[in-house]
Amino acid sequence: MAIFQSLYEVGQVFAQHINDNLPSSLAGSSGLVGPPLENAAGTNRELRYTVMWSTPQPTHRNDPWEIGESGGVEPPPLTLSVFVLVTTYGSTTRSEPIEALELLGEVMRTVHSEPVIPLPLASLTGVGEGELSFVQVPTAADLMEKIYSPLNMRHRPWALFEVGPVQLGHRADNGQAPFRVRPGGLQMDGPSAQARPQILRITPQTVIQGRSVRVDVALNDRLLDTVRFGTDAFSASIHATDLGGQAAYLVSVDAAIRPGEQSLSLQVGSAVDPPALRTDPASLTVVAPPATTTEQPVLDPFGVLTHPRTGAISLRGSGLTDVDQVLVWPDAGVAAPSEVIPVAFTHPPPPDDDVRIELAAGSLAGFSAGVYRFAARAPVAGRNTWTPYVILE
Questions:
Q1: Could you give the CA distance from residue 153 to residue 38 in angstroms, rounded to a whole number?
Q2: 3-class SS at 151?
Q3: Contact 43, 31 (CB under 8 A)
Q4: With contact defined as beta carbons under 8 Å apart, do 88 and 46 qualify?
Q5: Which of 43, 107, 129, 370 is most buried (most C-beta within 10 Å)?
Q6: DSSP symbol at 346
Q7: Kind and range of the H or E element at 325?
């Protein structure tokens, strides 16, 4: 769709487009918008672009009325197909139309190779906008008669082109009518709904009193205010540590949290920062500290969201002295057993061997980037026991 202010601009753009694409051998040919020349055998190289007729495009007859800048409705812009007769001139002294036919061939070649052009043209700024297409109209004897009979002129090289869609824009208003209704409708101010925060995941699902869990959340750009275990509320500034970008928090589960199945929920906002919104409760299991550290190995969640694959990694927890295997697998799921990978590790000297396992630098270098789960195995009472997994990207 190309928008113009007048039909003359259609012929003007057509003439300039052809002139821009003429070969150097025909450069300097005069191309104007106007009626065909009287002398069909003139020796000067010239082109004439004659707007013969235009007709509304049938697909736009039922375009809906539009709301104008003044706020009132107005008819849609007129959308037309414009038919342009191109005649060429340039004959020898013996009336041989050599250059005229060369010009006509270049016109048809240009239209065939570039049937659609963007507007405005670089060589004709400020005229037209949008896209304009050209189609050569097939010629028959009756079409020649319809063109040449009204013009009453001698035959000369010519071709007829349909140019469109051409849309004639509305005339600029001399003055805007007073607004009866605000353009675009009335905008009502008032309460707006805010999305509630969400707990996406808790790891590990089983936690010993006095340790921490990682809580992945979506807080919708609100500040975390309160951590709740069941009906007990705790200040987030003390019990929650942001791991980065409010995407995940380390939430401490101290001795005040009773053992057993607990519901954890988070609250954003408060009386001084309304509205106060709370997540749906998520469940986790809190267990009392074991009588001895060998009863149950436990991994603490990592204190960071991401870690370089080539760096050393420390797995911290409790009851890790007898750990004999550490497995790593993709958090997104395991497609094959080969994706569950044992990694090499070392125990630090006592007494740190009970609370820390070291993965050497480069032990994860062969892993692709992504989120992974880590779990450790230790024999407890003659039976292999796995820690709940923790995650790291």
A1: 7
A2: helix
A3: no
A4: yes
A5: 107
A6: B
A7: strand 325-330
Q: What mean pLDDT is predicted for residues 119-137? A: 92
**Predicted TM-score (pTM) of this structure:** 0.50
Q: Give the number of other CB atoms < 10 A from CB of residue 233.
A: 14
Distance of CA 250 to the CA centre of its chain: 33
Q: Locate tokens 């003439």: which residue?
A: 15
pLDDT tens profile 7-34 = 999 999 999 999 999 888 887 788 899 9
Helix (H) or strand (E) holding 170: none
Residue type, 39: N
Question: Comparing C-alpha atoms, which of 82, 87, 137 is closest to residue 107?
Answer: 87
- pLDDT value of position 382: 80
What whole-number distance in Å separates Cα of residue 367 and Cα of residue 207?
Answer: 28
Give me the residues paired with residue 124 across strands: 121
Q: Helix, strand, or coil here: 371? A: coil
Helix or strand (DSSP H, E) at 324: none
Q: With both helix axes pointing from N to C terminus, report the angle between 7-20 and 98-113 in degrees, rounded to the nearest 10.
A: 100
Distance between CA atoms of residues 7 and 105, nearest Å: 25
Tell me how far CA of residue 319 lies from CA of 41, 130, 290, 324, 386, in angstroms.
106, 72, 9, 12, 11
DSSP sequence for 198-234 = EEEEEESSEEETTEEEEEEEE-TT--EEEEEETTEEE
Model confidence at 71, pLDDT cuts 50, 70, 90, reads: low
Contact between 374 and 392 (Cβ < 8 Å): yes
Which residue type occupies 246?
Q
Preceding amide of 23 cis, omega within 30 = no
Mind giving me the DSSP string for 62-87? TPPPEE-TTSSEEPPPEEEEEEEEEE
- Asked if 185 and 273 touch (Cβ cutoff 8 Å), the reply is no
Q: Please name the residues in contact with 344: beta carbons below 8 A apart, sequence gap of 6 or more.
A: 359, 360, 363
Question: Which amino acid does the sequence have at 99?
Answer: E
Amino acid in the structure at residue 268: V
Q: Rounded to an integer, what distance in angstroms lies between the CA atom of residue 91 and that of residue 40?
A: 9
> Six-digit token pair at 207?
């936690």
Q: How many residues can be counted in the chain? A: 393
Residues 10 and 51: beta-carbon distance below 8 Å: yes
Tokens 């519901």 belong to 263
Rounded to whole angstroms, the Cα distance separating 369 from 138 reads 61
Contact assessment for residue 25 and residue 99, using Cβ atoms and an 8 Å cutoff? no
